[in-house]
Amino acid sequence: MNYIGSKRSLLNFLDKSIHKIIDPAKCQVFADLFAGTGVVGTHFKKKGYRLISNDIQYYSYILNRHYLGNNDELKFNNLILKMPELRHVNIKDRRQYLCDYLTSIKGRPGFIYENYCAGGTKNKSVQRLYYSDENGLKCDALRQLIESWKKQNHINDNEYYYLLACLIDSVDAYANTASVYSAFLKSLKPTAQRSLKIKALPLIKSNLMHDVYNQNIDDLISNIKCDILYLDPPYNRRQYATNYHVLETIAKYDNPILTGKTGLREYEAQKSLYCLKKKVKNALKNLIVQANSKYIFLSYNNEGVLRPGEIKTILSKKGKYGCFTQKYSRFKADKDHNRSYVADQTIEYLHYVIVK
Ligand SMILES: C[S@@+](CC[C@H](N)C(=O)[O-])C[C@H]1O[C@@H](n2cnc3c(N)ncnc32)[C@H](O)[C@@H]1O
Predict the structure, then answer these.
(1) Pocket around ligand 1 at a 6 A CB cut-off
(2) Is the same domain home to 199 and 292?
(3) Which of 22, 141, 231, 232 has its CA 20 to 30 A from that of 187?
(4) Tens of pLDDT along 133-143?
C-alpha cells in the first residue's frame, strides 16, 4: 500500500541501524506504536521478535491485526457449511481461493457506492468520484458479505481480519486519487477504471503471541513495556484521519455523517497531536517520559514540524542519544498537482536513545 511515511523502502536502513545499537540477547519485545501499514512490525516479526503494534486508525489496526495477529494458516472450516466446495480445497490454498471468490462476486449498492461514486451521488448535492461505479458496488458487496459471514459465525476473528485486510489493501489500489483521499480526480484515471481484484495477502507464521492495539498512543504508552520502542509519528501537519478517511469508512463501515466536497467523516478523536505545530513538542516529551523500554528509536525527516535539535533534547533526557541518517526520495502524493517542492530528496533521521 502506498502510504504517507511508509517505511517500506527504509527497512534495510532501519534494521541495520537498530542492530548496530541494541544487544539482541537482551531484546525480545519490539513495539511499533505508530504502525501504519505494518511493514516495520511485519519485518521484525519475521526476525523473531514478539511484536506490540498500535495505530489510531482502524484500517491500520485491520492490516496489523492480520500481519501480526495471524500466526497459523487460516482454515475457514466453518465456511464449508456455506461453501461446500471449500472442503476440497487444500487448507494452504484456501486464502487464495476465497480472494478469487470475492473477486468474482457481483456488486451491490451500499455506503461506498451511494457516497463516493458518480452513479450513487449523481442526484445528491455533491458529486464524488473516488471509485468507479463498478468498483464501489463491488467494495460494498464484499464489505457486507464479510460482515455477514462474521455475524453468522461462518468465519472466526482471525479469518475476518484477514479478509478485511485483503479488501482494504486491494481497494486502495483502485482509488481515483492522486494518492491520498484528501481529494478525488475529476475523471477516472486508468488504474481506477480497472476491475477490482482482491489480492491474497501473505500470512507470516510465528510461535509467539503478538499484541495489536487501536488506540491513541498517548493513552496507551504507560501500559506498554518493551525492549525496543520504535516510534514513527506523522512528520508534518497532514492528518492521517483526513488523508485516509475513505479507507477508514470502508474499514468501519459505520454509515458516518459526511461533510464537504470530499465527504469527510468526523475525526475529532483521531486528530493527532503529532501533526499540530503548537502541540507536538509537548506530546513527544510526555510520550518519551512515559516510555518503558531499553531502547527508543524515532524516525523523522529534515522537513518535519520538529527540528533535529529539539528531538535530541527530548530524547537525551532519557539516556545516551545518537542518530543515523539516510537520503530518501520524497513521498509523491501530489506529483500530478502543481506543488513546487524545495528538493526531491529529504534526509531521513533515525534518532535513538539507549535508556539509562
Ligand atoms: C508515519 S505513519 C507510520 C508509517 C508506518 N511506519 C509504515 O511504514 O507504514 C504515522 C502513523 O501514526 C498514526 N498516528 C498518528 N497519531 C497517532 C496517535 N496519537 N496514536 C496512534 N497512532 C497515531 C497514523 O495513523 C499513521 O498511521
Answers:
(1) 3, 5-7, 34, 36-37, 39-40, 54-57, 60, 216-218, 232-234, 240, 272, 274
(2) no
(3) 141
(4) 999 999 999 99
CA atoms of 129 and 144, how far apart (whole Å): 21
341 CA from centroid of ligand 1 (Å): 23
- Please indicate, yes or no, whether residues 59 and 153 belong to a single structural domain of this protein: no
For atom 7 of ligand 1, which residue has the closest CA? 6
**pLDDT tens sequence across 276-297:** 999 999 999 999 999 999 999 9
Q: Which of 14, 272, 279, 350 to mutate to test the pocket of ligand 1 (most atoms within 8 A of CB)?
A: 272
User: Structural domain tally of the chain?
Assistant: 2
Judged against a pLDDT cut of 70, whether residue 336 lies above it is answered with no
* 47: its cell numbers: 526476525
Cα dihedral sign for 181, 186, 189, 195? Answer: positive
With vertex at residue 54, the alpha carbon angle to CA 278 and CA 266, rounded to the nearest 5 degrees, is: 60
Instruction: Give yes or no: residues 217 and 341 share one domain.
Output: yes
**Distance between CA atoms of residues 36 and 34, nearest Å:** 6
The Å distance, Cα 38 to ligand 1 centre, comes to 10
Give yes or no: residues 26 and 4 share one domain.
Answer: yes
User: Do 188 and 223 share a structural domain?
Assistant: no
Q: Are 100 and 163 in the same domain?
A: yes
The atom of ligand 1 lying closest to the CA of 39 is: 8
Write out the residue range of the structural domain in which residue 104 sits: 74-203+242-267
Q: How far is the CA of 233 from the centre of ligand 1 (A)?
A: 5
Cell numbers at 308, concatenated: 533535529
Question: Are 90 and 111 contained in the same domain?
Answer: yes
Model's pTM, two decimal places? Answer: 0.96
